[in-house]
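Limitations

Structures in this collection are predictions, not experimental determinations, and the ligand pose is part of the prediction. Treat each record accordingly. The example that follows, with flavin-adenine dinucleotide as the small molecule, is included so readers can see exactly what is and is not provided: the inputs are given verbatim, and the output is the predicted complex.
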Amino acid sequence: MHAQVGIIGAGPAGLLLGHLLHLKGIDSVIVENRSQDYVIDRVRAGVLEQGTVDLMIQMGVGARLQREGLRHEGLYISFSGRRHHIDLAELTGGKAITVYGQNEVVKDLIDARIATGRPVYFEAANVSVHDIDSPRPKIRFQKDGRNQEIACDFIAGCDGFHGICRPSIPEGSIKIYEREYPFGWLGILAEAAPSSEELVYTYHERGFALFSMRSPKITRLYFQVPPAEDIGNWSDDAIWDEMLIRMTTRDGWKPNTGRILQKGVTPMRSFVAEPMRYGRMFLAGDAAHIVPPTGAKGLNLAAADVMVLAQAFARFYQQNSTQLLDQYSDICLRRVWKAQRFSWWMTSTLHRFPGETEFDYRRQLADLDYLIGSRAAMTSLAENYVGLPMDVPLV
Ligand SMILES: Cc1cc2nc3c(=O)[nH]c(=O)nc-3n(C[C@H](O)[C@H](O)[C@H](O)COP(=O)(O)OP(=O)(O)OC[C@H]3O[C@@H](n4cnc5c(N)ncnc54)[C@H](O)[C@@H]3O)c2cc1C
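Predicted complex:
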């Protein structure tokens, strides 16, 4: 087989890239090691920046997102028992975020991929990359017990944090910047109507908590726990008790409770690999960087990366220019580091750190008190949260 671009991973990055390339008349093959159902059912991100929504619509894959996505023009910051509203739209000239599950995004993109008739291989075993620093890199894998090889002009490593692309780069050719946080998030999906129309970020003396939702019937909630916490230690009743202790405000607002459909613990880390390229292989999305989920940036960064990458491939095939390909890593990393900064700030402002002192606790409260009293501080949060301007035209 031959493909102009071989894409490894059918997560948001790989699927978005595949469709952007399709719109530009560039052929691609997508190779994914999980099943189609597994990829669609994986519950993860849910907050789409304005630019990600605009991208989906302009790509022609935004119809269901526009119908079913929940547009939020504000959010709440809660501390000392009070919720404070931040008007994202008013502070950013009308921009907003949209709550639409990552699994819905992936489902829409898989439907779109299948409709194009372009190849996507699920359940590909033993995926590997070869000759990535040569003009003809290759992807090898097994499908239904048969060996397959795709000779490519370029490979896009969109295979997430645990994929094989980044580890295939020779040691010393990329530099890793990393920070692990001394906590994780215990997250649940519950059959309960959201009791707030907008997200509520809570800083409580027992630690961080987040109220969010996936649909008018499903609430998504998180609270901070130690990073290696065993979910088996948490009965459903104990989870609800902790959620309610942290989130209930003095005016009596609290999440509605209901049957817990899914629960799990996710550790948190910041991670950046530089540069996001080796030879003819380009890394995009979680394969190149991870942010703690507090700023809701992971999926959005993946979208921003592949927008640049798709434009760069188009420039190569249409104008025979490698200029944008050569600039790909630098362009993306500027945005990635700003997202790292914002996600780190949200995380460190809203979480309790082991061993912190009463001084630290009061300083954090003062940080939040300043935030809700200063238009400049709220604007800074708002423009980062709805998403900084994209670096290249949308499609
Ligand atoms: C609990 C949680 C909450 C989150 N909340 C948010 C949020 O609110 N907002 C936000 O923007 N982000 C959030 N994120 C982050 C977001 O989910 C990721 O940043 C996003 O999935 C990145 O997309 P990706 O395509 O780069 O990687 P992935 O979604 O990880 O996709 C990579 C794909 O590659 C496949 N793959 C892996 N290895 C191989 C291999 N060897 N061969 C072939 N295929 C392979 C994987 O199966 C997967 O399908 C959250 C993440 C978690 C875990």
